[in-house]
Amino acid sequence: MNYWHPGWKNLAGHQACLSHILRDFEDAAESYPGAHWPTQAQRALRGLIHVWGQARDAGLDAIPADTAGPLITEFRRARAVGLSDVPRIPRPKNSTAQHPGRDLLEFCLGRENDVLMFTTDTGLST
């Protein structure tokens, strides 16, 4: 996925595709076999998807905060560790190839609302 494609500016406020993000975290896990952050991020997102389905089936508008909170914290911690482990290559985001997973991590930081939007709206598709 090209996380810094100019078209993303037009998609702000829309749910990011979690299947693509999960796949890209799998790629990161393969690129960094000793790192725990890619698997941790996947586990947190899959957990959120699971409780999203439960909340939707229960007729709730959102995942309860006490359920989503720990999983969102786990996701944020994985992202923070990944950002500290994978150095940024200086230069503009849209013209410089980064180390595997770096664009994904920066996207998940800068567009967190688009990545986690489904946690506050069970009417969205994951």
Polypeptide structure, described:
This protein is mainly alpha-helical and 126 residues long. It has one domain (15-120). 55% of the residues lie in helices and 0% in strands. It has 5 helices and no strands. The chain has helices at 18-31, 37-57, 65-85, 102-110, 112-115. Helix 1 (18-31) packs antiparallel against helix 2 (37-57) and helix 3 (65-85) crosses helix 4 (102-110).
The tally of domains stands at 1
What's the Cα radius of gyration? Answer: 15 Å
List how many beta strands DSSP finds.
Answer: 0
Count every helix, treating DSSP H or I runs of 4 or more residues as helices: 5
Q: What form results from the Cα inertia axes?
A: elongated
| Average pLDDT level | 88
Question: What keyword list fits this structure?
Answer:
single chain, 126 residues, mainly alpha, 5 helices
Provide a brief overview of the structure:
The protein has 126 residues and is an all-alpha fold. The protein is 55% helix and 0% strand.
